[in-house]
Structure formats: C-alpha cells, structure tokens
Specification:
elongated; Ribosomal Protein L25, Chain P; five-stranded mixed β-sheet; about 240 residues; RNA Polymerase Alpha Subunit, Chain A, domain 2; 2 domains; single chain
C-alpha cells in the first residue's frame, strides 16, 4: 500500500454541539484523533478534502494536524439522518509496522457462465471481511474469483485471493457468494365450488324449472304486482 493520501486538520479549541453545528455550516467536519496511548485530540477537517480522501478508498491516510503528520486509520464515520452529509469522523493513530485488524471490501472477478442462465441470481451474504496484517500492507480490497461458480454452489472465505502478508480472520466457512435460480410465481386456478365461485348448474334435456313456492308458504314473497291473499273468514259466533 502506498501511503500517499494526505488530509489537513486543525485543532479544535472550542467544543460543544453548538460549535460543531456552526463549523458544519462552513463545510468543515468535526473529528477526533485517538490511540497509541496519547490523549484524544479534537480536530476539524475540510469536508471537500475529506470526501476526496474517502473516495480514494485508501485504508490508511496521513493526517497532518497543525503541521505534524501522523498515519491514521478512518475508524468510523457518522452521517446525518439522510446519509448525505458527514457529521463526525474518528481517526485512530497507527504505526505502519504494527499488525492490526481491519474490515475490507470483497471484489468479485471472473466471467461466470452460470449467471447467463435464465433466472439465475447471484447472492452475496457478505460483501466485506476482516483481515489482519501490518498497517502499511492493508489492501484496499480482496478478490473473489467467481468464474467457476455453478448454480446451487457457494464460495467461501477459503476461496479468497489474499495478498502476501494478509490473512482473513473470519470463519473459513463464511459464505461470500452463491448462485440460485429464481422460481416463477404460479397463478392459482379457481376451483369449482370454492368460496366466491358458484358452480355451474347443468339441466337435463326437457327438464322443467322447479315450481315456485306456493302462495302463503313460510318465507315466500309475493310476486311484484300481485295482490295479497284475502284474510281467512272469521268463524260464526255462537248464539
């Protein structure tokens, strides 16, 4: 790794949320530098320069604080609610010859023939791994060759291509990539007699419709326009 990325920083003498919000409006990001048994140092960095340094994807950068250079690792980055603006950064001091463990991205390489099959899907359960090496040898990424990957099979941490002096500390059986075939969604066929579907009634040739219910039958309603039946005559009174 070539340690060529430099980022200028200035010491912050005034602290607090109000001060931090004010310097953010000036496109400056509040940060801290810690580690190596030295006191935590509040600093501020230019937002544009920080974005450029992060875009370079160099694990280690040279943080120049008030003219003093120190190799540092970007330990954590805090974003605003919408993920658009960096609001705070933690820098960890490192010795380029010390062995440290960091997280790096896994980059896929190779032309995978299995991905050309209809409905094939590449799944990546893990896109990063933890590696251990000297700070000066931290790779920007590690490579996983998927050219021989077949449908229904997987590639693991043991399949990674690692630079000399770099080891992966994750479980060797951690799945990094697999290929599966997506299933087409089946449309259910309506079943006769199912809820909401009336079965078809087939009449025999020459069969007549069932007779309408007799007038006066319980629950029967008179046809439209028909007069109601006269009430039954009362029995004659006894003399």
């Amino acid at each position: 790794m070539s340690n060529t990325i430099k980022l200028n920083a200035t010491t912050r003498t005034k602290l607090g949320s109000r001060v931090a919000n004010r310097i953010r409006k000036e496109n400056t990001v509040p940060a801290v530098v810690y580690g190596h048994k030295e006191a935590t140092l509040p600093v501020a960095v230019n937002g544009i320069e920080l974005a450029a340094a992060m875009a370079a994807k160099s694990p280690i950068l040279t943080l120049v604080v008030d003219g003093k250079a120190q190799p540092c690792l970007i330990k954590s980055v805090q974003w605003d609610t919408f993920g658009r603006q960096i609001i705070h950064v933690d820098f960890a001091r490192v010795d380029l010859n010390e062995t440290i463990t960091v997280k790096v991205n896994v980059v896929l390489a190779g032309d995978c023939a299995a991905l050309k099959a209809a409905g094939s899907i590449l799944l990546r359960p893990a896109a990063t791994v933890n590696v251990s090496c000297k700070a000066k040898d931290i790779p920007s990424s590690v490579t996983l060759n998927i050219s021989e990957l077949a449908v229904g099979h997987s590639l693991f941490v043991t399949n990674l291509t690692l630079p000399a002096g770099v080891t992966c500390v994750d479980d060797a059986h951690t799945v990094l990539a697999t290929i599966s075939i997506g299933k087409e969604e089946e449309v259910a066929t309506p079943v006769a007699g199912a809820a909401g579907t009336a079965p078809e009634v087939i009449k025999k040739p020459g069969a007549k419709d069932e007779a309408a219910p007799a007038a006066g039958a319980a629950g029967a309603k008179p046809a439209a326009g028909a007069k109601a039946a006269a009430p039954a005559a009362k029995p004659a009174a006894k003399k």
